[in-house]
Specification:
Layout (H helix, E strand, L loop, with lengths): L2 E5 L6 H12 L2 E4 H9 L3 H8 L1 H15 L5 E4 L10 H8 L1 E6 L2 H9 L8 H5 L2 H15 L4 E4 L5 H16 L3
Parallel strand pairs: 1-3, 1-4, 2-3, 4-5
Helix pairs in contact: 1-9, 2-4, 3-4
This protein binds shikimate-3-phosphate (S3P).
Length: about 170
């Protein structure tokens, strides 16, 4: 199986690290949120506002399923995707799944700057306290990943190197 999924909370660097990782491997990079926005011709914020979160979760699942047959691809998924449907199990069964673990403080600081607000309706709708609660709940699912990488003080390139190392070990057995 030559596929790597990157999971983690909003602001954990999945897209940035995913691009670097794909480049180092010579693989394709896919960001599920980008695919959804292009397919619908609107931002994630607009999809939430016009059709609701449930509809967005269905789109995420559909797009994930589309990419299952792909090989040599790094896939970055939205922070909520692993906790809906059987998405987490699907990823675990079809690729190497990596949780980018960033501390609560670092995440909150990044999200507070209203960073990428068109992509993150949940940041506008939730207080800091409920974002932390959401993260703590989701962590239980994220931690089922094949590999957990602490990302607080490493550069994207160092993190990508670490992912490649553990992927090569995992690949021997899969
Ligand atoms: C979400 C995270 C976002 C995006 C959507 C919902 C979530 O992706 O999918 O706003 O539920 O955590 P990022 O994790 O890439 O910000």
């Amino acid at each position: 199986m030559e596929k790597i999924y990157l999971i983690g909370f909003m602001g954990s660097g999945k897209t940035t690290i995913g691009r670097v990782l794909a480049e180092k491997l010579g693989w394709q990079f896919v960001d599920i949120d980008d695919v959804i926005e292009k397919r619908k011709g609107m931002s994630i914020n607009e999809i939430f506002n016009n059709f609701g979160e449930e509809y967005f979760r269905e789109l995420e699942n559909e797009v994930l399923l589309n990419f299952i047959p792909f090989q040599k691809v790094v896939i970055s998924v939205g922070g909520g995707l692993p906790v809906y449907f059987n998405n987490m199990e699907l990823m675990l069964e079809t690729g190497f799944t990596v949780y980018l673990d960033v501390s609560e403080n670092v995440l909150l600081n990044r999200l507070k700057n209203n960073w990428e607000s068109e992509k993150r309706p949940l940041v506008n709708r939730n207080s800091e306290e409920s974002l932390i609660n959401l993260l703590r709940d989701r962590k239980k699912v994220y931690e089922k990943a094949h590999e957990i990488i602490k990302c607080n003080s490493q550069t994207p390139s160092q993190i990508a190197d670490q992912i490649i190392k553990s992927f090569l070990v995992w690949k021997k057995y899969h």
